[in-house]
Amino acid sequence: IQHVLVPASADLDKSWAKCRLNIKECDAAQMKVLQGFRSSLMDAIGKFHQNKAGGMFIDSCYSHCQTLKSATWHSPTSTRIENKTIAESVGDWYFDRKPVKLIDCPYPCNPSCYNLNFT
């Protein structure tokens, strides 16, 4: 949200300011926009989802670059989809142990999310 969907330069009236910093501050209209963004992403990856060679781990967490921190990458508190962490999923895909096509339900459904608060 902060850098792509509604960067500060596009939010001149600052109506997205709180939402950009903490997803729990988003109002119903903003959440509708975010869910629309998710829907567009799901539509865009439709054919890739059929590709046996490709892998995906798409969670509904409000966090970017989850691979940089052990708390989000691979720890007891890491985000999980079908009880698999990002690290386990990438390992399964990379080492060709099994196909990985994990897609989370829409926000805020995943209680394991590590949502960042930038306020």
UniProtKB/TrEMBL annotation:
GO terms for molecular function: hydrolase activity. It is found in: Secreted, Cell wall. Its EC number is 3.1.1.-. The keyword Hydrolase applies. InterPro entries: PAE/NOTUM. It comes from the Eukaryota. Keywords: Cell wall, Cell wall biogenesis/degradation, Hydrolase, Secreted. PANTHER family: NOTUM-RELATED, PECTIN ACETYLESTERASE 4. Hydrolyzes acetyl esters in homogalacturonan regions of pectin. In type I primary cell wall, galacturonic acid residues of pectin can be acetylated at the O-2 and O-3 positions. Decreasing the degree of acetylation of pectin gels in vitro alters their physical properties. Belongs to the pectinacetylesterase family. This is Pectin acetylesterase. It comes from Brassica carinata.
